[in-house]
């Protein structure tokens, strides 16, 4: 495995094949997209169920696993431009800001459907990439994917799970105990 810490996902009853796919997918990502990884992209490129992909990314960002770190991006509701990246939902401002691209005024925290969650890979692969890994998963470029193809805070709240809860609150004792 490129990221042996991902084996810990097995304790959450994640399918070993899905873990192996995530391990390979994370290993082959280009340096340019390592701060903009999407469970939606992983799901689409590896044919892993979307809900499972979101849960795997969420669990991979817990202190227990520590391979990924969530990033919360404030997206302008007028022009869809990014107006700030934050390491937790609590850091996203409630006060109004002015979009640096279109000058639209909005309160980022009041628009949870406009807060995108992406992930940053925190670790480097522990072994060199094998030549056949890139053939397993077809990588596509990242970037601003638009509302339909990105994970938003409102999506997590509409479809909560124990695996995702730590992304938006500090109330899950299992994750706090791991710290």
Q: Class by helix and strand content?
A: alpha+beta
Total E-strand runs: 6
User: Overall pLDDT, averaged?
Assistant: 84
Rg computed from alpha carbons, rounded to a whole number of angstroms: 16 Å
Helical stretch tally: 7
**Strand portion:** 5-15%
SSE pattern: HHHEEEEEHEHHH
How would you characterize this protein structure?
Residues 136-145 and 170-179 have low confidence and may be disordered. By secondary structure, the chain is an alpha+beta fold. The radius of gyration is 16 Å and the shape is globular. α3 (50-60) crosses α6. The protein is built from seven helices and six strands, in the order αααβββββαβααα.
């Amino acid at each position: 495995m490129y990221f042996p810490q991902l084996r810990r996902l097995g304790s959450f009853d994640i399918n070993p094949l899905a873990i192996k796919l995530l391990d390979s997918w994370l290993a082959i990502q280009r340096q340019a997209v390592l701060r903009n990884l999407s469970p939606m992209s992983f799901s689409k490129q590896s044919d892993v169920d979307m809900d499972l992909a979101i849960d795997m990314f969420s669990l991979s960002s817990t202190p227990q696993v520590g391979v990924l770190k969530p990033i919360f991006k404030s997206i302008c509701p007028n022009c869809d431009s990014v107006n700030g990246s934050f390491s937790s939902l609590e850091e996203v401002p409630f006060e109004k800001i002015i979009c640096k691209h279109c000058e639209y005024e909005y309160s980022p925290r009041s628009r949870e459907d406009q807060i995108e969650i992406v992930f940053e890979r925190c670790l480097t692969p522990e072994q060199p990439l094998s030549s056949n890994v890139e053939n397993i998963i077809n990588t596509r470029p990242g970037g601003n994917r638009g509302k339909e193809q990105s994970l938003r805070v409102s999506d997590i709240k509409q479809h909560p799970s124990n695996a995702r809860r730590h992304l938006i609150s500090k109330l899950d004792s299992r994750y706090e105990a791991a710290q």
